[in-house]
Amino acid sequence: MERASAAASALSSPAERALGEAIDWMVLLRSGEVSPDERAAFEQWLAAEDEHRTAWAHVSGRLDDAFQPLRASEAHASAAHHVLLQPEAKRAPTRRRGRTGLLAIATLLCSAWLAEQYTPLLDLTADLHTATGEQRVFALPDGSTVTLGARSAADIMFDGQERRVRLRAGELIATVVPDTAHPFVVETHEGQVRVRGTGVVVRQEADRSFAHALDEGATVTTRQGERAVLHQGEATYFQQLHVAQPRPRPAEPKRPSSPLPVKNFS
Prior knowledge:
alpha+beta, 14-stranded mixed sheet, 6 helices
C-alpha cells in the first residue's frame, strides 16, 4: 500500500504524518481487501514509533464512534449479513463503495483532528471558550469576570441561589464581585471550589484539578465530599476522592485590570 498519501505528505510534524498514515491504514484494513503481507506491514508500522500507536488509537476510536449508530441498527446489520453471504463477484462493488465511504470518513477525521489542535471540537459548545494561543476576559452577568487561558472552555450556570461556572477544560482566573447571598463556585470534573474572597485560579488537568486562592481564601470540595480550606495564597490539587494538603504558592498570577478586551457573556 502507498501509505504516503497526498494528504499525509502535506502534513509537516511527525504526529501529523503519523495521523495521515494511520488513516490510510484504516481505509485499507476496513476495505475487506487486505492481504497477509499488508497485514504484516501494518503490524510493523504500528510497532515502529510511539506516534504511530497514538495516531492509530485516535483514528480507530474516532471511526468506531462514527460507525456506532450503524451497529445499533438491526436493519443495517441484516443488510450487512446479506452482503456477506453473496458470492465474491457480487460483493466486490459493495466493498469498493465501502472503501469510498471510509475514505470520506477518514478525510473528515483528519480535518477534525487538525481543527481540534486549535480549538477542541467538544468545547465549541461551551458558553465561553478560547483557541490555541488565545486568552480572553469575559464579563459575567453579576459584574464578575472570568479570564480564560488558551484552549479553555467553561459554562455559566447562574440561578437565584448561586453563581456557578463549570470549567470543562483549561484554566481560568475568576475575579469575583462579593455577594454573600449568592456564592461563587467553580466546578471541575473532580469537584468544586467555592470562592470566599474575590479571586481564584482553577485549572482542569487530565485526571485532577488545581485551585489557588488569590485572596481571603476558598473552600475545595471533592466529588466524594472531602474538603480543604485554602487561605490567601495557598494552592492545592484535588481528585474526586481526595484533596491534597494546601500549600503556600509564592508566585501569584496577576488578574488583568483591562489589558485584554472584555467580552460580555450572553
